[in-house]
Amino acid sequence: MKGKLIVIALVISAFLFGRFCNKNTINMNRVTDIQADADGAQITLVDGTGYYWER
Q: What is the Cα 24 distance to its own chain's centre?
């Protein structure tokens, strides 16, 4: 019984974390272009905005 409660608590915690703590993600359905070089990657979205990640 105690083990089941721990598993349920972990599942609920993972769900809530994934639901509300995803501020650092990109909707890949909106990506139009990805360009990479030795220094990093440029990701361009549908609306023209973009992100650059350095190594």
A: 5
